[in-house]
User: What shape does this take?
Amino acid sequence: MQERSFHIITFGCQMNVHDSQWLGRALTARGFAPAPLEEAQVVLVNTCSVREKPELKVMSTLGRIRQATGNSPRVLVGVTGCVAQQLGDALFRQRQVRLVAGSDGISGAPAAIERLLADPALRLSLLDFTAHYEEREAGSPLPRAATGHVNIMQGCDNFCAYCIVPFTRGRQKSRATAAVLDDCRALLAAGTRDITLLGQNVNAFGRDASGDGTAFHELLRRVDALPGLARLHYVTPHPKDMDAEDVAAFGELEHLCPRLHLPLQAGSDAVLKRMGRKYDAARFLDLVARLRAARPDVALSTDLIVGFPGESEDDFQATLDMMRECDFMASFSFCYSDRPGTRASRFLDKIPPEVQQDRLVRLQALQDELGTRWLAARVGQEAEILLEGRSPRDAAPDGSGESWQGRDIYGALVHVNLPPGDHLGRTVCVRIAHAHRHSLVGSLPGNAE
Assistant: This one.
C-alpha cells in the first residue's frame, strides 16, 4: 500500500465525473498521489442513484475493493454522491467504509480524509444539505485538455414523479456568476477550448435563493464572450424552462454549438402528465420548431423512459412518433425502475419487465435508424474538428501519419489521419468521407480515405 495515495471509482452522469475529477485534483494538491486500486491507501466510490439497482452496484463494488485490498483496515474507503446521500450511515456496516459524503458533503471530503487518516478509529458522515452552494477548495493545476466542464448549480426543484435527484442532490442552488466565470477563465488559461456548463436544470440558473440575479441566457452571453473560447455547450435543460432568450441564443451567440440534449422522456401526454413533466407533446414540438427556426442545423438528442407505470402500447407508439417527428440524432433510453421515495414508486400499475424490454428494443432500433441516417447525411460535408486525443482507429497503412479523434460542432465523433505530432486542442477542417454506426471518418483536403 502506498502512503497518501488514492483511487477513485466513478458511476453515473457527467456531473459525477466532474466531481471525481475535482476530488482527484483536491487530494493531489494536499500531497496525495493517484494509485491502482490494489495499492491505494484511500479508495473513493462516487455513486449515482439514477439507474437501476444502484445500491447493488455499490455493494458489489465495495466487495471488489475488499478483495483487491485484502480487506485491510489500513485502507480507508469513502462512499460519496447520490447513493451515499440515500443510504447514509448504513454504509458504515461495511468494515472499510469510514467516510460517507453526500452530494453537498462531497466538498468537505478532502479535509475529512485528512482527519480520518490521522485518527484510525474515526468515522465521518457528511450528509447535511447546505442552504447555498458551497464553493470548493482549489485543487492542483488543471490538466491540459481540449474540453472542460464547469458546474453552475446543484440540485433540482422539479420533483418529477420518477426522479430521485431532489432527494439525493437536494434543492436547487445556483453558483455565483463570478465563480462560474472564474472557473471558465481557468480552463481557458489551461488550454481548454470547448466548455460545457453543467447542472440538473441549467435553464433555471439564478431562479433560486442562491442566485445573484443573472438569468441563464445572460450567463451564456458572458461565457460566450470570454477570450480564447471556441465552443460552448450546456447540459441539461428542462423543456418547460427554455424561454425565448434561451432559444434565440442558438442563432445569436458565436460559440454556442448547434447541439442540444433536450430530454423528452415520453411522447404521450398522459404519461408526461403522470411523470409531472409540466409540458405536453405539442409544447415540446413547438420548442423544437423554434430551436430549428433559430438555428436550422441544430442537432437534438434526448432522454427516454420506456415502460413508465400505466404506459399503454398506444402511449409507447406516441413516443416513437415523437422520435420520428423530432428526428433525434441520438438518445439515452432506459426501462423505468422504482427509485425510493419518488411518487412513481407508489404507482400500482407497473409494466411487466418483459413488456418493458420489448419496447426498449423497438425504441432503440428506431433510434439506430435515425442516428445512422443522420450520420450518413454528413458524408461529403466539410466539418471543423476540435481534436481531443489520439484515436484507437488504425492510422494510414503506409505509416505516414497518426489517427486522431475529435468532435465537430454537433458533437459527432470524427476520426482523421494527421501528420505525426501533438495535435491536442487544434482544430482541423476535414471532409467527411465515411459514416460508421456511431462515428465519422474525415480526410484532410486533398487526401483520399
Summary: Residues 353-376 form the longest helix (24 residues).
